[in-house]
Amino acid sequence: MHLLKSHRFNHTPSSEITPPEVYHGRREWLQHLALGAAGTALAGWAAREAHAQVAAPGKLARLPAARSAVAGAQVMDKPTAYGDVTSYNNFYEFGTDKADPARNAHTLKPRPWTVTVEGECKRPQTFDLDALLKLAPMEERIYRLRCVEGWSMVIPWVGWSLAELIKKIEPTGNAKYVQFITLADKAQMPGIRSSVLDWPYTEGLRLDEALHPLTLLAFGLYGEVLPNQNGAPVRLVVPWKYGFKSAKSIVKIRLVEKQPLSSWERAAAQEYGFFSNVNPAVDHPRWSQASERRIGEDGLFAKKRPTLMFNGYEAQVGQLYAGMDLKKFY
User: Fold this and answer.
1) Cis-peptide, bond into residue 156, ω within 30° of zero
2) pLDDT digits over 111-151, tens only?
3) Cα–Cα distance measured from residue 124 to residue 39, given in angstroms and rounded to the nearest whole number
4) What is the distance between the alpha carbons of residues 200 and 33, in angstroms, rounded to a whole number?
């Protein structure tokens, strides 16, 4: 989808730094300084300040985690409120309205749970949830989430890099892609009775995308286990791609040689490509991708935000697509 573009911050001379009273709060002022002449040191300080705002809401079981040191895993944007993250969802297995998952997902049973990992690997196996929770140290990562519909969030996830799991099952030389298959149970998921998509919901990544350290297997958000409506008990998070690429309630992961067909490709290939990288220069037929509405910033005078190439992760992932025509491979 698009030709790669580089994005650089315009640094502001120190004499032109806007005073803090102009901003809504201390964090916004710190971010302004961090992007201006104050440089790297203040950027790190501002990031720590943003993290201090992330607190467990006390709704579900705690899932302790250390802050991630992965490059790009700690965005400085203000996290979206927990109430918005857990009440405004696309999870068609529980209904197509944004409020349906929160209303209907109480029927999902996240325990017991197993994830089978198979295909082009030397050590295929089935993991129960407790084994997955212990497979690697939990990390807190604050990622942007960009929906193809033109809205966005910032979410503090808890999990670890999917690469940790893939390494354990030892891919063969034939493994070129990773397919994700999610739960499809009519008894637990009322939306499965609908024909809006072919079930189960499936997604896929190229192997190098799956192995990128930013690709997250998530078990929680806001310091607690995942709410059902957000993909409990385990989901994928690929922050530089549109949100539908991040499969929820995963039950099977397959390493395959040929590019797998995802659910949205099957439903409308002309609208949803395999890569689905966030790209402000390539619109969806129904939604412009040039800007986005950040959930929680919906006031009368709230402006849309310009969408960033690869959702702001170009420095970390742009090399994965070097030389590709990203308009053709959308």
Assistant:
1) no
2) 999 999 999 999 999 999 999 999 999 999 999 999 999 99
3) 47
4) 47
Confidence (pTM)? 0.85
Q: In the block, which residue shows the tokens 């385990």?
A: 234
**Best CA proximity match to 249, nearest among 207, 194, 204, 200:** 200
Residue 270 is encoded by which pair of tokens?
A: 């002309």
Say whether 224 sits in a helix, a strand or coil: strand
Query: Could you give the C-alpha distances from 236 to 113, 226, 283, 311, in angstroms and in order?
Result: 16, 12, 24, 16
**Side chain identity at residue 289, one-letter code:** Q
For 262-300, letters b (16+ CB in 10 Å) and e give bbbbeeeeeebbbbbbbbbebeeeeeebeebbbbbeeee
Quick one: 235 exposed, middle or buried, by C-beta within 10 A (0-12, 13-18, 19+)?
buried
Alpha-carbon distance of 34 to 32, in angstroms, equals 5
Encoded tokens for 69: 């040191």
The letter for the amino acid at 137 is P
What confidence score (pLDDT) does residue 53 get? 54
Which pair of structure tokens corresponds to residue 16?
A: 């032109």
User: Is the CB of residue 289 less than 8 Å from the CB of residue 282?
Assistant: yes
- The H or E element spanning position 140 is strand 139-146
Pairing of strands 125-128, 114-119: antiparallel
Sign of the four-CA dihedral 241, 180, 149, 265:
positive
Give yes or no for residue 41 having a pLDDT over 90: no
pLDDT computed for residue 34 by the predictor: 45
- The backbone torsions φ and ψ at residue 311, rounded to the nearest 5 degrees and listed phi first, read 60, 25
Amino acid type, 92: Y
